Target: Pseudouridine synthase
Amino acid sequence: MGSEHRDQDKNRPRPARPAAKPSPQANLVAGPQEAPAGAQRLNKAIAASGLCSRRKADALILAGRVCVNGQPEPNPGRQVGPEDTLSVDGRPLAAPQNYAYVLLHKPVQVVCTAHDPQGRPTVLDCLPEQWRDLRLYPVGRLDYFSEGLLLLTNDGALAQRLCHPSHHQPKSYEVLVRGTVPPEALETMRRGMHLAEGEKLAPVTVTAAPHPKGMLLQMELHQGLNRQIRRMCRDLGLTILRLRRVAQGPLRLGDLPSGAARELTPDEVTALRRSVGLA
Model:
C-alpha cells in the first residue's frame, strides 16, 4: 500500500511556483530606455539655443531655474524632444539655432564682453547686423588696449573646450615695443620667467626684428595667464606700443582689417573642432 501511495504522489500535478520578484539590483543594471527620435540631453538643448554653454546650462538646471513642459526639471541628462517646451526663469527658450563661427579683428578700446556696465563699445558692436541676433559670445579675451584675432561663436561645447586649460591652444602675437630689446630679456622669455606676482611662466617662443618705431617681437604663448605679455614686458622694462594677436591654434588673422569680421570657412571649423577633440 505504501508503494501504491508513493506512485500516486508522483503522478499528482504539483502547484506552480510563484514568479520570482525582480531584485532591486536588476533595475540598477537595466539599460537606459531608448530616447525618442530627435531627443537630446536637456543641457545640450539649452546650449543649442544659444543661451549659454553646456556647463552653464548644468548650473541653471541644478539651481531649479529650468522647466520642461511647465515643470521644474533637476536632471541635466533628461531627454527632451522637439515637442517639449523649455523655459529658463519662466521665459520660453528660443528654438535651437545653427551654429555660427566668426573671426573678428578686434580693435583697440573695445571690450571683450557682450555688455559693458560702463557703456564702452563691445566686440558685439563690431559685428554686422546679420550676426547680431545669433547670440554670439567671445571665446577668450583681449584686453582693452590690445587688438587682433578674436573668435565669437554660439557653439557652447566648442567654447567650453577652447577655454579649458586641458585644451589650451598656442597663440601668436606681434608686439611692438619702444627702443631696443636686450638679448638677456629675450633669453629670459625663452627660458621661462617668474612674474612679479609669483606665477611661473612656461618658455615663450620669441624673435625680435628692427621696426621704425622700435622693435617688433613675434611671440608664441602656450599658457593662458591674464595679461601675460604686458606683465612680462613690464617686469623686463619694456614699453609696449602695440599688441596684436595674429593666430590661435589653426586660425590666422591674415590681412583682415581692424574692426572687420568674417565667417570661418568649413575647413577652419573642422580644424578648430578637431584641435579640441570634437571632430
The chain has three domains: 40-92, 97-167+253-278, 170-248.
